[in-house]
Specification:
The protein has 543 residues and is an alpha/beta fold. It folds into three domains: 98 residues, Phosphohistidine domain (Glucose Oxidase, domain 1, 3-Layer(bba) Sandwich); 100 residues, PtsI, HPr-binding domain (Enzyme I, Chain A, domain 2, Orthogonal Bundle); 292 residues, TIM Barrel (Alpha-Beta Barrel), CATH 3.20.20. Helix content is 43%, strand content 14%. The protein is built from 18 helices and 16 strands. An eight-stranded mixed β-sheet has the order 1-8-7-3-4-5-6-2, with helices on one face. Helix 4 packs antiparallel against helix 5 and helix 15 crosses helix 17. The longest helix is centred in the N-terminal third of the chain and has 26 residues. The chain is globular and about 75 Å long. The two termini are 43 Å apart.
Length: 543
C-alpha cells in the first residue's frame, strides 16, 4: 500500500548530518487502558498498589536513563521527579478516599494537574510528559505491556506524532531514521536522536499521510523527507578539507559528567565551554556537602580536555527540578525561579557550590571560569561576579539567555570577564516559544534571522565592552552555523563532544575574512530557509 506519490517532498526540521533511505514503519498506538472504576478493595490495598506501580515505572525510567547515557539522562531524572511528586500523590490519595481504584485515582490526579497547565501552549510538552507517565502507571497496575513494538531486524524509518523519552530509549538497531509529525529541534526526540546519530526530521506535519510500505529518504541537511527518494539525491553536508591548521576560534565541548569530560578530551576539544553542573544533583534527595561536591568536580576537571573549563552554576528549575531544593509548583516555570534566581532562597547552596568548584580548581590546578545562568539584569551580573570573585580565583561570566541582558552588555564593561550565549533559551524567550513545545519547532530554528541579528548585536557589544564572547547553545554544534558565529565576532564556540571534530574541521577550513564575509551576507536575509541556503552555498564554493 502506498500513501504518497513518489517524488513527494515533505518539509520539516532536520536533526543530524547523515541521510538515510528505508521503509516506513508506522508506530502502532498503545493498547487501550481499562476504564476507570470504583474499587472493592481497601484504601490501603489500593494505595499500596499505586505506590508499587509508581516504583516500578520509576525503576524503568532509571534503566532507560542508564541506557541512553549521561547526555540524555537528565530527561529521565526530570521525568522521575514528576512521577514521584508528593503533591500529585496526595491528590491521588484523595481520589482513593472517594473509593476510586489506584489507576483511576492516579489518572484523575494527573488530569487535574494537566488542567492547571492546560490552555497555555508553553506547557504542551510537560503536559504530554505527565500524561505519558500516567498511562505507564495505569498500564503497570493493569498488567499491560507498555513499549514500542518495533522490528529488531532490517532497516526502518519510524513515523509517529512524536516520541516520549521512554519511547526513544527503546529504539532497536533496526531504527535508522525517525520522522515526527510534531516536535522541534530541541524536543526530547531530537535530543536523543542527535546523541545516537539517528537521522531524523521533526515537525513534519505532512508525514501524517505516510503509510507502512512507503520508502522514504530522510534528508536532515535538506530539512525534508522525499517519498521514493534515493540516497544519491540527499542534500550533502559540507565536507570540509582538513587543512591541518588550528580553527580560527577555539572549539570547546559541552559536558555534564565525568564520562562526557573523557569524550571531550578524546575529541581534542579546546577545553570545556559549558559544564552543566545540575546533572550532578538531579538524583540527590539531600543537599550534598562541600567535600562530596569538591570530589565530584575535581574528578571531572582532571579528565577534561586541555584549555579553559567554563563551569555553569546550577541551572535548576523549569524542566530540570532538583529534589533537595524543594522548589514549589509554578504557573509558568520557564519564566519563574530558575538559574541564578535561586540565590534568593538558596544562597547557601550557591555559595557551597562555588566553594566546591574553587577547592577542585586548586586541587587540579586547572583554569576554571564560572558563569551564572538566567541573568536578566546588570545588577544580577554584578552580584554574581562579586560573590564568585570573593570565593575563588576564577574568570567570571554570565549566560546570555534573556533578551533583557542583551540590551545591557555595555553596562557590564569592567564587571565580568566573559559571556556565553545559550541559543536554546535565548530563542525561547526571543520568540516567546517554549523550547519543549512540539508545535513551535520552526521558531526555534537557529537560522531564524531575528536570532542571527541578535547574536550579531551581542558579539559587537561584547567586543566594544572588552568582554570575551562565546556560544555554547545547540546551534554551535552545526559546523555551518559555527562559521557564522565566528564571522559575527564570537571568540569561541562550544559543541557536543560528538560534533567537536566536525566543527573544528569547518573552522580550520575557512579564513577569518571568509567567515566575516559570510556572516555579513547572511544578515541580509529575511527567512531562515534563505539564510541557511546562502551559507551552505558560500561554504560549498570555498570547499
Amino acid at each position: 500500500m502506498t500513501g504518497l506519490a513518489a517524488g513527494t517532498v515533505l518539509s520539516g526540521l532536520g536533526v543530524g548530518l547523515n541521510a538515510v533511505v528505508a521503509e516506513v514503519f508506522r508506530v502502532a498506538p498503545m493498547q487501550a487502558l481499562p476504564a476507570w472504576t470504583k474499587s472493592t478493595r481497601s484504601f490501603d490495598d489500593e494505595r499500596d498498589a499505586l505506590r508499587g506501580a509508581i516504583g516500578s515505572v520509576g525503576a524503568h525510567l532509571d534503566s532507560l536513563g542508564a541506557k541512553v547515557g549521561s547526555t540524555s539522562a537528565e530527561i529521565f531524572e526530570a521525568l522521575k521527579y514528576l512521577l514521584e511528586d508528593e503533591e500529585l500523590f496526595e491528590v491521588a490519595e484523595g481520589n482513593l478516599n472517594d473509593g476510586w481504584s489506584a489507576a483511576a485515582a492516579y489518572g484523575m490526579a494527573v488530569n487535574e494537574f494537566a488542567e492547571l497547565l492546560g490552555g497555555d501552549p508553553d506547557f504542551d510538552e510537560r503536559v504530554k510528559d505527565l500524561q505519558d507517565l500516567s498511562k505507564r502507571v495505569q498500564a503497570e497496575i493493569a498488567g499491560i505491556k507498555v513499549g514500542l513494538e518495533l522490528p529488531s531486524e532490517g532497516s526502518f524509518v519510524i513515523v509517529g506524532e512524536d516520541f516520549s523519552p521512554a519511547d526513544t530509549a527503546q529504539f532497536t538497531p533496526a531504527v535508522v531514521g525517525v520522522i515526527t509529525i510534531s516536535g522541534g529541534p530541541t524536543s526530547h526526540t531530537a535530543i536523543i536522536c542527535r546523541s545516537r546519530s539517528i537521522a531524523a526530521v521533526v515537525s513534519c506535519a505532512a508525514a501524517v499521510d505516510l503509510v507502512d510500505g512507503d520508502v522514504v529518504l530522510v534528508d536532515p541537511v535538506g530539512d525534508r523527507v522525499v517519498v521514493g527518494g534515493e540516497i544519491s539525491s540527499a542534500t550533502q553536508a559540507i565536507k570540509f578539507i582538513d587543512t591541518g591548521r588550528e580553527p580560527i576560534i577555539p572549539v570547546r565541548s559541552n559536558i555534564g559528567s565525568l564520562d562526557d569530560a573523557k569524550k571531550a578530551a578524546a575529541a581534542n576539544a579546546n577545553g570545556v565551554g559549558l559544564f552543566r553542573t545540575e546533572l550532578l544533583y538531579l538524583s540527590a534527595t539531600s543537599q550534598p556537602d562541600v567535600a562530596s561536591q569538591s570530589a565530584s568536580y575535581a574528578e571531572v576537571l582532571a579528565a577534561a580536555p586541555a584549555g579553559p573549563i567554563v563551569v555553569r552554576t546550577i541551572d535548576a528549575g523549569s524542566d530540570k527540578p532538583v529534589p533537595f531544593l524543594n522548589m514549589p509548583h509554578e504557573e509558568n516555570p520557564s519564566l519563574g525561579v530558575r538559574g541564578f534566581r535561586l540565590i534568593r532562597e538558596h544562597r547557601s547552596f550557591i555559595e557551597d557550590q562555588l566553594h566546591s568548584i574553587e577547592f577542585a580548581r586548586a586541587h587540579t590546578n586547572r583554569e576554571v571560569w564560572v558563569m551564572a545562568p538566567m541573568i536578566a539584569t546588570a545588577g544580577e551580573a554584578r552580584e554574581f561576579a562579586g560573590l564568585a570573585r570573593s570565593i575563588g580565583k576564577f574568570k567570571v561570566g554570565i549566560m546570555v539567555e534573556t533578551p533583557s541582558i542583551v540590551t545591557q552588555i555595555a553596562d557590564l564593561k569592567g564587571q565580568i570577564d566573559f559571556l556565553s550565549v545559550g541559543t536554546n533559551d535565548l530563542s525561547q524567550y526571543l520568540f516567546a516559544a517554549d523550547r519543549m513545545n512540539p508545535a513551535l519547532g520552526l521558531l526555534l530554528n537557529p537560522w531564524q534571522p531575528a536570532l542571527i541579528r541578535t547574536l550579531a548585536r551581542i558579539a559587537s557589544e561584547a567586543e566594544a565592552a572588552g568582554i570575551s564572547s562565546g556560544v555554547c547553545g545547540e546551534s554551535a554544534s552545526d559546523p555551518a552555523f559555527a562559521v557564522v558565529l565566528a564571522g559575527l565576532g564570537f571568540k569561541s564556540v562550544s559543541a557536543s563532544a560528538s560534533q567537536v571534530g566536525a566543527v573544528r574541521a569547518a573552522l580550520s577550513a575557512v579564513s577569518e575574512a571568509d567567515a566575516k564575509r559570510i556572516a555579513t551576507g547572511v544578515l541580509a536575509f529575511s527567512t531562515a530557509e534563505e539564510a541557511k541556503a546562502f551559507v551552505l552555498q558560500e561554504l560549498a564554493l570555498l570547499n
